[in-house]
Amino acid sequence: MTQELTTDVTPSTARPARGWWRDAVIYEVYVRSFADSDGDGIGDLRGIRDRLPYLAGLGVDAVWLTPFYASPQADGGYDVADHRAVDPLFGDLADADELVRTAHGLGLRVIVDIVPNHTSDQHPWFREARAGRHGGAARARYHFHKGRGAHGDLPPNDWESVFGGPAWTRTEVPDGNGGTSQPEAGGEWYLHLFAPEQPDLNWDHPEVREEFTSVLRFWLDLGVDGFRVDVAHGMVKAPGLPDIGAREQAELIGSQVLPFFDQDGVHEIHRTWRRLLDSYGGERIGVAEAWAPSPERLALYVRPDELHQAFNFQFLRCPWDADRMRAVIDDSLAALRPVGAPATWVLSNHDVVRHLTRYGDGAGGLRRARAAALLMLALPGSAYVYQGEELGLPEVTDLPDHLRQDPSFFRAEGQDGFRDGCRVPIPWTRDGSSHGFGPGGSWLPQPAGWAGLSIEAQSGDPASTLELYRRALTLRRRHPGLGDGAMHWLDAPEGVLAFARDGFVCTVNTAGTDAVLPVPGRVLLSSAAPETTGGTVCLPAESCTWWAI
């Protein structure tokens, strides 16, 4: 027989007053692609504000906004020209203020991006540095160095950009006749771990530290609840900027030990920021986008006096394999236990191929993505949901080259070059030129098949991925055994993960065939309905089930 699915559980007591982030579900909004209020085809702050009731109804606790600051948009806003101004593409400061107030009125917290590793090349500081003499005081805020070789025409070291190609660009000066700029005499080069339009800041310079303390205060005073720290592992470089010794592209998320990532000096900066966050009421938080070569190194970013969360990229990158998944979960929890920090699970974001597509094409990818979502939401700690994953959106892999905007796509051997495919605006309605994204079109085209994946089409359909997420998030809030806390593994057949929490069991069948095991309890929720007969249950292939015990 088929056991009836239900979402009723005994409501838990109220959440503790402190530590909201320890089990929060936080929804990432890629600002350009969430909702467009003015019909220019680009998402904006007013569009987000108008759609906040959807997020409150989905059941998330907070919203993370990607950069909306003044920017030439060379890298989707991660090249910031003014950290205290809203880019006109997205609105103005009044829109930001109203968004925060509206979110708070709906019980949602707001986290904003801060980009401390680099600025735009249009930032006033870099304009001053570029116009000044080599070796001048203005250039000390960045990494300017003379080139190697007899004439300084070789980069200062062998570092490669995450986006592909050298991590150094030689400064240029106008030729004086209104023509093409020429390399600057003296051989000065500037460092950019990302695009040339994103020069790296020198965090040994006191003005850099003072400026970012002021920027953080500006947004905290406006009322934001925290910051996602972009490239939190990259602000400090090894003394002397040593060669890597091998010409290979740097990976933002990888296993390399590099002289410009995960240097110990970043932790002093994060401690300073933690003291600032703690000086404000309302439990403001810092979230590290930090690559580290091991879970133990990642745990250093969330020691009690540093940041509150750090994305678990090892989990994100883990293949659909029971043994590998269990190892990543075990290693992550073991590394965090000594520092008392919660795990922060994530499956997708604006920088990676959507997990549905990573897990496989078509129906198989969707089955695994739905199961992985329930697994993630059942694990101890906090979780992040990337916009559209609750709709089961796949990666868009057939965008025409002339529409792409990811800078890594245009640089040889760049990091994937596929980031545009996960940034296509999400569909709200079945019809319309942009499926409800806005009154006009969208800056990247949506596939025709997305009408059936829209929020309108999925709402109220009990078999839809959207309703699966809604039920899961409701259960997660109500069930005392979900969120922060402990877990332990249970015996299970090969290919099946099973673990218990307080009054709760989660079973995940990663295999391509059904699996049979004793009934753990009463079904709360499943990504595909299990069949029970007497005391045994048949778990469908590539599915996850939640049980009350």
Automatic annotation (TrEMBL):
Gene3D superfamilies: Glycosidases, Oligo-1,6-glucosidase, Domain 2. Keywords: Hydrolase. It comes from the Bacteria. The keyword Hydrolase applies. Residues 28-419 form the Glycosyl hydrolase family 13 catalytic domain. It holds the Pfam family Alpha-amylase. One of its GO terms (molecular function) is hydrolase activity. InterPro entries: GH (IPR017853), GH13_cat_dom (IPR006047), O16G_dom_2 (IPR045857). PANTHER family: ALPHA-AMYLASE FAMILY MEMBER, NEUTRAL AND BASIC AMINO ACID TRANSPORT PROTEIN RBAT. Belongs to the glycosyl hydrolase 13 family. This is Glycoside hydrolase family 13 protein.
